Amino acid sequence: MNQAGRSFARREPNFLEDASEPVSSLFAFEFSRLRDHPDPDSVLPSLLVAIPVMGKDLLLLLFLFSLLAAAAAAAAVDARANKSSSLEGLFWATGKDESELLAMMESKEEPSAGEDEIDGFAGGFSSLDGMLQWAIGHSDPEKLKEKAMDVQRLSEDELKKRRLEIKELMEKLKMPSDAELMKIAIADLNNSSITLEDRQRALNELLFLVEPIDNANDLDKLGGLVMVIRELDNTETHIRTTSAWILGKASQNNALVQNQILTHGALTKLMKMVNSSFTEEAVKALYAISALIRNNEIGQRLFYSEEGYIMLQDIMGNSSIDIRLRKKAAFLVADLADYQLQYADNSELHFLGNRFFLKAVVDLILTPDLDLQEKALLAVRSLLQLTSTDASDLRDFCSLDRILESMREHLEKLMLEEDLRDYVKEIESLRREVAIIFQSKLDKQVAWVPT
Fold it and tell me: Does one domain contain both 63 and 183?
């Protein structure tokens, strides 16, 4: 791994130890000007330049508070779109346990009320101005004036030299941008001599960085897509899994990246990975496929040409397969059917109305998992609205009417469990909607007599 990328966040303590007394006096001089000046904003820029080399105690305190503020802010805006993820790069660079980071991405929760409030010691300072005001209120005016007097005795050349030193230190302390972090990670992936651990670390970094749409859009420009897609052929399972995960995140609701990935030929590789004996690899590959072809006609046509519907049918019809795969398959079926209803001529996709395909979907309603039942109902509801779907096949071959009635009886019993009641009511409402659409389609088919 590029050492600059791994160690930049650990440099600050060394710089603090190296700060010279004359240079820190320069900060004191600027600080005293801010304290006594009638227009503090005019002094603030020069004070900011001096911050990195102030006296150790105050600098350490301010620096720690700034990190706390940044961390709290990053946590508060984690779910917001199009925001920079530089702080996440800091986590990677400081050696945070990667398993913890990946777990965080797997199970993001909605922030509770008040979590966005960052005030004082509760979560750091809301701004650098607030941090400086706190420092001013807790400083010793006499010591500041004493150091300021030292600076006033400096010649113009000496003062310029001190300011140049401060500027150089500021540059070294500057946090890399997301684009810079992405370049570092991509360079590591392109380095055949790095260790497997460093290769995994680079992928983990990209996994965080591609979440904002602007970063995802830059991935191909920086040569990252080619590198990540190449890793789908890696002999290590974890490398392939993370690579698929990156492609899924980058292409989520992003037509530009979807088409770029499709152009690079990744879909066929991902479909092969779904058959992996390693469950996590298969799950992430199917996740990537779903994100890649969602609302993308080119991607869906390629998916169908590779017999993707048979892949989905096999997943849904195999009760021994991990339930996460079956849920993702059912969700993708509903998504594909909805797209046909909204944007395409659904009559040409007859395989979505294939009775064996329909049975694989309907049978999921019999599973004991409520979440899978709900996803199966959503898929059936969408399929029922396609002209290619024969309601009589759903009744005679798939036994949808009997399965829906059996489900109603089961949900009635679950209603007695207080902790499940609200969710069960939602599923029962969906079940009734499917039953109504199903019966309506049956009635229309019976009423229609060919001439």
Answer: no
